[in-house]
Design brief:
Helix content is 19%, strand content 32%. The protein has 174 residues and is an alpha+beta fold. The two termini are 20 Å apart. The relative contact order is 0.23. The longest helix has 20 residues. The mean pLDDT is 88.
Length: 174
């Protein structure tokens, strides 16, 4: 182990102990394919000042939680503590369009990605087809890392108040 790796390991250990002592989660583990798998570090949120591209940990709406369990994306026993980790794709006042014909997603007129008609289990996905504007106090979670991310293309917007943390990659797969 190099000196740099030892120093990094010590820092991670100190952060972990501090989190345990304060009963605060500062390191999040991502095992989904929506972002690179690995550890993410909580960083401060200043006056709920978010930007497009910020990675956030949030509680999905009750409707989305139920949909995730019904589709077998999550176990029923995890319903009360379910959180998602996704980048912010759009914020209040931004517009987004999902084309019914091409399944192309544009945010503020710029290409972001495509949606899929079916999930990896072969189930038809509920697409957010049409032109939309993100309401005040909401955000649209969108992952451009993975094609099959269960995000705003299928679930719509989420209240900003549902954000539990803003995170950055700490140790992730390449």
């Amino acid at each position: 182990m190099t000196e740099k790796q030892r120093t990094g390991a010590v820092i991670v250990f100190i952060l972990f102990v501090a989190a345990l002592l304060n009963n605060t989660c500062i390191i999040y583990l991502n095992v989904s394919g929506s972002l690179p798998r690995g550890l993410y570090l909580r960083i401060p949120i200043y006056r709920e000042c978010f930007r497009q591209g910020d990675i956030v940990v949030y509680e999905p709406t009750e409707e989305v939680k139920s949909m995730a369990v019904k589709r077998k994306y999550s176990a029923p026993d995890g319903l009360s503590s379910m959180t998602f980790m996704k980048p912010i794709g759009a914020l209040s006042g931004d517009s987004y369009t999902l084309s019914a014909k091409t399944l192309v997603l544009n945010i503020n007129g710029r290409f972001v990605g495509k949606a899929e008609r079916f999930d990896s289990y072969g189930q038809e996905l509920p697409l957010m087809i049409g032109n939309h504007t993100v309401k005040n106090g909401e955000f649209l979670p969108i992952s451009t890392y993975a094609v099959n991310s269960f995000d705003g293309r299928y679930t719509g917007t989420v209240p900003i108040q549902n954000i539990k943390a803003r995170v950055i990659p700490l140790v992730v797969e390449c």
